[in-house]
Design brief:
The chain is α/β, with parallel strands linked by helices and 401 residues long. The chain folds into two domains: 25-147 and 284-382, Rossmann fold (3-Layer(aba) Sandwich), CATH 3.40.50; 150-278, Response regulator (Rossmann fold, 3-Layer(aba) Sandwich). It contains 14 helices and 15 strands. The chain has helices at 2-23, 40-59, 80-93, 105-119, 149-162, 176-191, 210-217, 230-243, 259-265, 267-270, 286-297, 307-324, 329-340, 352-360, and strands at residues 26-33, 68-75, 98-100, 122-125, 142-144, 167-173, 195-202, 223-227, 250-252, 274-280, 345-347, 365-369, 372-373, 385-391, 397-399. Helix 5 crosses helix 6 (176-191) and helix 12 (307-324) runs parallel beside helix 14. The longest helix has 22 residues, at 2-23.
């Protein structure tokens, strides 16, 4: 009798354990983000958008057999070395099955080359845009929904030309994102017939750039093209330029898109004098509107830089795991294209239950992103569009024609 009771208890314990694994398991995906560093203010909303996607998954049935979709944070600091350390912890200690992020191209390159590619772990970036990422020997493991600066740089050059600029000086920070952007822009602007009067690298985080700016201003260009992160050198360069009457007109890109630029330099000083280009979301489309309504309901601004892209990478990672049928690192890469690229049942942001049912029924699915159509090419890249922004009458970043 005693042995029978013990056997029954053991069987019940095993059944309970197996049930717990099936219904209350956890699938961990790394969320590498520059929560400290030169773009920390921007990253708050980026992380919130990633977390919203995870919430949608968990509220509508979870992953696979009901497992919790858990985003494990890692601080990549917008720095290659810090990113390698964060990635190593995510992959080797936390045992994540994929990584979304990292923020900043140098951090993404560093983490991919030193950690994720050797470990066979997919990386899916929402903000890394350097052309060099397309050339990684990545075994089809690095994807991004943010478009390459190869396209963005050529687009910004055309917009500068269209706005009447013919002679421009360029300064860029010495990192993968800003140096790659500057190279593409300079080549494209020259091809249009423009003149680059000076093209100089600068070190981030210096107290002053007055000497470098004085040299660039000496050739009397129409304006300064500034490729930098606002929190490392960008704001200081704007301030030095204006205080010393060296430059009054500025162009730049998404690395400068933060409200702190307007707050510290002043709306009146920048209005009509600065244009910044950034990747555009598909505003007005059903996918964007679905995301925007849900994100705004959490107290966040859906038009903040890259937040639509951030929701998309988090949702896509979950879709790929569901499509793969297991939390197998090796199966996620192939599944990403299957859930993102047409054709298939269209899935919008927030439609996790619909996606889960379609996958279970053996249907192909096609996730239509909040950031725009996501069709991964052979390099894991997508195409996209851009907006040009200036300071509006209300003192905020506003699209300009």
């Amino acid at each position: 009798m005693k042995k029978t009771m013990i056997a029954a208890a053991a069987a019940a314990a095993a059944l309970a354990l197996n049930g717990a694994v099936a219904t209350a398991g956890e699938v961990k995906v790394g969320s590498a983000a520059a929560v400290t560093g030169p773009i920390a203010e921007l990253v708050v909303a980026i992380v919130n958008a990633r977390n919203l996607a995870a919430t949608h998954v968990n509220e509508q049935g979870g992953l696979l057999g009901g497992d919790t979709y858990t985003l494990v944070p890692g601080d990549s600091q917008c720095d290659p070395k810090a990113a390698v350390d964060a990635g190593a912890k995510l992959v080797n200690v936390e045992q994540v099955v994929a990584i979304i992020g990292a923020n900043c191209s140098g951090a993404t390159n560093g983490m991919a080359q030193s950690v994720s590619i050797p470990a066979g772990v997919v990386m899916l970036s929402d903000t890394a845009t350097a052309p060099s990422i397309s050339e990684l020997d990545d075994n089809d493991l690095v994807f991004r929904v943010a478009t390459s600066d190869d396209l963005h740089g050529r687009t910004l050059a055309q917009r500068a030309w269209d706005h009447g600029y013919r002679k421009l000086a360029v300064t860029y920070a010495t990192d993968d994102y800003n140096s790659g952007f500057a190279e593409v822009f300079a080549a494209a602007f020259t091809a249009l017939g423009g003149t680059i009067t000076g093209n100089e690298a600068h070190e981030p985080n210096k107290a002053s750039y007055r000497a470098e700016l004085a040299t660039l201003a000496g050739a009397e260009p129409d304006g300064l093209v500034l490729f930098a992160y606002y929190g490392s050198s960008g704001i200081t360069i704007l301030r030095n330029s204006l205080e010393n009457a060296l430059f009054g007109k500025f162009l730049g890109a998404d690395g400068m898109m933060d409200n702190s630029v307007i707050e510290q330099i002043g709306a009146d000083n920048l209005r009509g004098n600065i244009m910044l280009s950034q990747p555009a979301s598909a505003t007005g489309s059903p996918p964007y509107e679905a995301f925007a309504a849900a994100f705004e309901a959490t107290g966040n601004a859906p038009d903040a830089p890259f937040v639509a892209h951030s929701y998309d990478v988090s949702f896509l990672a979950a879709l790929a795991i569901e499509k793969a049928g297991s939390a197998d690192r090796g199966a996620i890469s192939a599944a990403l294209r299957e859930v993102a690229n047409a054709p298939g049942t269209v899935i919008l942001p927030g439609e996790w239950a619909k996606a889960k049912a379609a996958i279970a029924a053996g249907e192909d699915i096609n996730y239509e992103g909040a950031s725009g159509p996501i069709e991964f090419d052979e390099k894991g890249d997508v195409t996209g569009t851009y907006t040009l922004n200036g300071v509006g009458d209300d003192g905020t970043w506003t699209p300009v024609m």
